[in-house]
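DM from R.C. (forwarded with permission)

"hey, sorry to bug you on a friday — could you get me a structure for this? deadline for the figure draft is monday and I only need the backbone to look sensible"
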Amino acid sequence: MTRTRLAAWIVALAMLASMFGFTASAEDDTVNIEVFSSGGGSVTVDGKLDGEPHWSGFSFSAAVGETVTMTAEADEDFEFLFWVNQETERIVSRSATYSFVAATYAKIQAVFDLQESIAQDEDNQHTVVYLTEGDNIRYFESVELGDTDYYQYVPQNGLLAAGKTFIGWDHTPEQVAAQTGRVFVRPVYNTDISYVIKTYVGGVMQETQAAYGQTAQVDAPATLDGKAFSYWKAVYDDVNIPDQITSFYASYKFVVTMNATFVAVYGETVTDGIATRVSGDMPNFEGATISLYAEHSVKQGYTVLQHGMLLTLNESVGNFEDRFVIGGTDVLKGTANNTNLVGTYSIRKSNWYATNSQGGYFYPKLYARAYVVATDKSGVTHTVYSRIYCADYHERIFEGNDFEDPFGT
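My reply, with the result:
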């Protein structure tokens, strides 16, 4: 077989994916999955196509909600690098065996590269990969050892990260040129946004700073003035938003996406022992994704059967509590794998693009709702939903990406 270098195109997956072990479910249906190889290896799909390896593009059908497992095997003199999502140009796995839940039409590619020692000895080359913070590929090429001329083609704009400013790369061109092996270069950012977290315990206020996207924790004593801790509640500046129980436990974790105020409450009895909320979102405009964060807290004595998050883009569903429920029309359900009494978790919506609407390109409103299904001591099952949360970046007019295609397509 003739050896070839990296292909100039990469295709990939478009799906709803979670960050911490969620699976996506929808109405029973099938979707088409297209799979490609960059050259230098083959792909097999567990339970599909009689398990035979394929070297070029092929496709198969999968049921929505079905777990698909694919395995990449490198040809002689090659090695597997990663699986890539073309629509976001994002690395989705570095493992040769890759599993995902089928949710929508998808294109996936296994990327192979000539072994480093062969590339260096025979071709005097090494592979240089520039990545964004979210593992999106910005530049991917095989270049001459010691060469720095390639750097003029590395995009320097469009490297957006929520709450941060791109200030450069973690390798200079000279540092890249000095390395003989494959080089992965990542962006360096300044953190621009931090938020104020206020806590009130016994009327005493404490204030701390927390970076955008950081996981924060607040703690309160188990007893205060002879009274037992009851719960933490979130208090909002907007008087139209009522206070909200966030945790029944004195140590409470959450993801920081805005200023927040929490009050420790003592000596109160709460009959409803299940609390859940969507705490915020984090958009990645450059990566065409948006992540939403949620928490749940369930008192001792309950057994959690299921918890997770619901998503919809349908405003006629997302604006109505009786419609935005498990099993509702146009409602996608993300379910966590664990059933702990407390948890902080997130779900990522891929393919979150601005679309042409009303004379401009606008981001769609994304509605989210956390849920918990649990049984109490009597065996009665309760399904509890959070308030509806809307990630609304509709008014952010999208200017489009003004950078060169790193694959030259």
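R.C.: lifesaver. The first strand starts at residue 16 and ends at 18.
me: no worries. Residues 116-123 form the longest helix (8 residues).
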